[in-house]
């Protein structure tokens, strides 16, 4: 017959902090009035083998933060095998066993030796066992139970930050979000109100408020103006126990800064400004500075200046100095004291970044009057033109007047001026000027073909103050006169085939002329009069400033005449007519049936003396001609004009001697 033993774990309620146990499946909210026992079933005769076990352990609660001088009593462990004779020994193991929790091995009494803090460790898991003291064998299996530390309100709420920093735009509506603060409570949030935190504002009213449950801080006052007050320090309290009396609390500081919005227009501190500037101030010269004040800051305080109206609207300009936000008034065009001495301007200052919701406050701009007085300075003479252009014919005689320049002192004194030529621009002293009236005249002859334009500089200087001078460029164009004869564009030397036909074109002629007539070049070509009759060639004028050389007969014999010299007269069509004579060399050559030149050398007829008959004749003709020129009087020389004699170098190696004819 099977026997049953009972293992009892007993907990008594102690003072002043009671302990109690409850089933795991059921939690009680009160303390038990009497001890509770847990019955354990087991077999007899200290056998460990069990056919059936049914364990039902309790969960035990122990109040934290025990402040008594004695150990805190937890409970009593008891087995039904214990007959009080000391044969059993109770053993405790698990979390804190032997240190935090101790057991009387004879009586089974369990005590806590130290002050417990739920926030450090809320639950302890322990194991209890009864063994035979003599044999050391367990009389019951080891069993586990739990001690849960019961929370008390011993932790105040702590904010996540000691100091919060936040910003909110000025002039914000009531209820505008500023920042959210958060406090945490280390107490058990599942038990009572120890960890239920409520927020309240201790400092910062009536400007700000805080939501009690969320910690969200909002604006509470309308039209808070940064220009009146920028910084606010708000103190927020977080209190547990739902804010009830006796709850613990903590505080934090929130530093709130109002950020700027553009709610202030620029304003000039004065309505009128006055400046002076010399009339000699070049464009871009700063005259003075004006500044409109703006209570805003940063981008909202940026100012743009502009001239909206006034007499000097086109004479002056105003720009914004981005660093100082000042309006810098500058000269836009050259000033003239003699024309206008005082200018009045209206300058406007405005904000480029405007918030529409503040337009009801009025226009975000202001205007001021600026008077600018022009001061007289001694100015250099001023020419009547920025540059002068004159013309003169190239055949002009020395001291011919070309034109004149005029300059005068612009000052009221009207000091007299004198004129001179900057010789660095007229190194050859081709021109001169009358120092009194500014007349320009030539001092040397001109040649258009040498230099078409002369660029010189004229200086005007005040007689009473030589330091005051000015310069002006003078451009002189030399006009063309027909003083150059046309001439061949190149040296012409051509050939004619021995079997050439009459009226065959053998060469096209072109001419050039250094002159530049207004109607363009019109050249005419012809043979020189002395060669016109009996010539073997003719000139055909093409009427397009070109001419062609044509054969006049059929066939040429290079043995009889190897070279012809054609004098060609070239005339222009301008006034006075200019002409020149150019010579074209025509060689007689042997050609193939296509007209391509093959050989232009004459085959020499060799005499015993080594000279051909043609060579001898040519030499004799040259000698006679030269003697005639030397011996005849000068009055007979024109008769020999057009007669030419050419003597080729004699080749000692019996090379053929070439014969030449003027036509």
UniProtKB/TrEMBL annotation:
Subcellular location field: Cell membrane
| Pfam families membership | Cadherin
Primary location: membrane
Against SUPFAM superfamilies, the record matches this protein to: Cadherin-like (SSF49313)
Annotated InterPro entries: Cadherin (IPR039808), Cadherin-like_dom (IPR002126), Cadherin-like_sf (IPR015919), Cadherin_CS (IPR020894)
Region listing for Disordered, in residue ranges: 259-287
Q: Which residues form the Cadherin domain?
A: 79-159, 160-268, 269-383, 384-488, 488-610
Q: Where are the transmembrane segments?
A: 610-632
Q: Which CDD domains match?
A: Cadherin_repeat (cd11304)
Recite the UniProt keywords alphabetically.
Answer: Calcium, Cell membrane, Cleavage on pair of basic residues, Glycoprotein, Membrane, Metal-binding, Repeat, Signal, Transmembrane, Transmembrane helix
Q: Where is the composition biased (Polar residues)?
A: 269-279
Write down what this protein is called.
Answer: Cadherin-6 isoform X2
Question: Which species expresses this protein natively?
Answer: Vulpes vulpes
